[in-house]
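Hello K.,

You asked for the raw outputs rather than the summary table, so here they are, unedited. I folded two proteins back to back in the same session to keep the settings identical. This is the first:
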Amino acid sequence: MNKIALSILALSLNSSGLLLPSLTAAEGYTDTPMLPGGKWHVHDPARPQPPVVTPGKTFSHLAPAPSDAVVLFDGKDFSKWQGQKGDVEWKLEDGYMETTHTGVIRTKDEFGDFQLHLEFATPAKVVGNGQGRGNNGVNIYGRYEIQVLDSYNNPTYADGSASAIYGQTPPLVNASKPPGEWQTYDIIWEGPRWDENKKLIKPAYATVLHNGVIVHNRREVFGITNHRTMPVYTPHPPKGFIQLYEHGNPVRFRNIWIRPLGEYDQGSSAAVH
């Protein structure tokens, strides 16, 4: 697979503010297709790592759902979700769900353009590195993934780091919290559109805040996200389900809600409650 690991000598600050050398490693591939623009391969090991930003202590942690939102997970049950073989077999405990070796899960309902709030925590005990550390993902319509990963002092190919549009666009910055701490994603999604002849007339766009820090600002999505392959679009309905992965890492999720974006100038005589 021509996987390449690059060793990079980096500088980090210790508690006294002194610059100290630290050895990090980036993984990736050079035999993959070139992304649009012709500068980087998919999962290119030479692509710059996003600069690190320390987020605030909290942002939208445990944010209550707005009145027009659908609460997908409130820590009590899996009533809004289904597993690959029917019922969800993930762990349910203390207000969160945790992955088990029972496959991916997805919402029972489908959604169009939306605002999604989700909170996750990668394992407090660090096992592995790169893509083997806290790997999961928010997969929109089963096609477009916003990466979930432990990217705290854990370099990997930049387009596979936490909050990346997987295999396409790294985040503007790395706003990851330490392993085991709860983190937030607030995702605004605009899906792609096709005309009656199945010609793409509008690509998808994603706006993402990670722990309150904007990491994608209405960023164009190049197509379906996959490992090592060129992103391309294939026509699909304007609505789809939300999927959470199972990659063998015990990632936790809590407080998941979603609301439609709606349209401007669509007022009504009564407020929505």
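The second followed immediately with the same parameters:
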Amino acid sequence: MKSNLLSKLETSTASMSKGHKKIAAYILQNYDKAAFMTASALGEKVGTSESTVVRFASELGFKGYPELQKELQQLIKSKLTAVQRMEVSQSLIGDNDIVRTVLTGDIELIRETAEQTSKTDFKNAVDAINNAKKIYILGVRSSAALASFLAFYFNLVFDSVVLVDTSSASEMFEQMFRINENDVCIAISFPRYSKQTVNALRFIQDRKATIISITDTADSPMAPYTDHLLVAKSNMASVVDSLVAPLSLINALIVSVTLSKKEEVYNNFNDLESIWDKYQVYEKDEANADE
């Protein structure tokens, strides 16, 4: 299934000027490369000027070329194979300092997430979690690490938290078949989106449970099944995805939930500290070990 942008380019090409046709043709055949080209570089590649590329973006309905470029980048995140990701990252990073390049990119993703996160959506998600009878947490493949992190802390706060084991599709549904309108499912997925997660959300929606999705865009395939959508920016970093901003958003979710249940959490952690101390869960400070 083609994206809206690629479909629009295909249907609009016939009425375009000669220069715009060249740009459209190149993007249709090489959108993975065009997504990371400047307007000047794209114009040079197809034999037109930078201003022609900028006008091309405007005629497609974008505010400017950067907006067109962002949509192309969003498109390729869910379409590129692992090999293609390696090729793109090589062309982007080149001989640059890898540590600085990757960390600077992560900082920008966190900044964008902080600016764009809806306070209303976030508060509604927190309220839904606090009012749920049971909380299911779902994350497949690379998102499984985020789901496990969230479940670890929520288990210290809530009595009924289920981290769904996604190693088997059939067992996944068996773990959730009791989910109902009193429960919440927090689902996490980023490009390349997991079909397994989307199928699970369809099932959960049929069971009338509240769905909180943590994903990268309102156009995510999870969105149609979601009651509360929390958007965290992610990007490619070679064959891996940058999930720093999603983890930061999850941290904020944990903090918000614990602060809203302050007294209960305080009592839980008082009990836990006694247990941890009795069974030597953590290393003691050697300087104070004999005190």
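The chain has a mean pLDDT of 86.

Happy to rerun anything if the numbers look odd on your end.

Regards,
P.
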